[in-house]
Amino acid sequence: MIVHEPVYWGGIEEPDGDPDIFVVALGTSGPDRMRGSDGVDLLYGRAGDDRLRAGADDDVLCGGRGQDRLIGGAGEDRFLFNGPLGQAHADRLVDFESGVDRVLLATALFGVDAPGQIAAGSFALSSRGQAAEADDRIIFNPVTGRLFFDPDGSGAAERQLIAVLDPDSGLSAADVWLI
Hints:
Elements: E1 2-4, E2 8-13, E3 19-26, E4 32-35, E5 40-44, E6 51-53, E7 60-62, E8 69-71, E9 78-81, E10 91-93, E11 102-105, E12 116-117, E13 123-125, E14 138-140, E15 146-149, E16 160-164, E17 176-178
């Protein structure tokens, strides 16, 4: 296991004159442990079963391939999914907070062109984790905390596990965005 130091850090001066420090850390093809700063962080685990822990600001965490453990910490965090889906690549979002944090889904991965917040009709809460209607694409099981993508809603295609959240996270359509 490799513990990473940031590969890049810098600062951006905000309009109020206060600098924001940010860190970009990239993982390897194996399991990585990364810890962000108290500034803005971008932590990208790439391959392997990684553990990413952001700092106290607004951060972006992307586990990449593997079953990763993502901890956003304080702030408005973004959990990005842009790689393979399914059990072998499902990440654990430890501290997701509905209304504050967001799940970001890459448009190319999910077969859509338009970025933005997902339509309320494309999101379903289901204690069975199954789509009930043809337009249900993102399904959250509030009993198990499992978040799925279903490419054809209630059709024959298999749903694919995206991530596992705390069942009490309160995840809603307003928390899921396509980028």
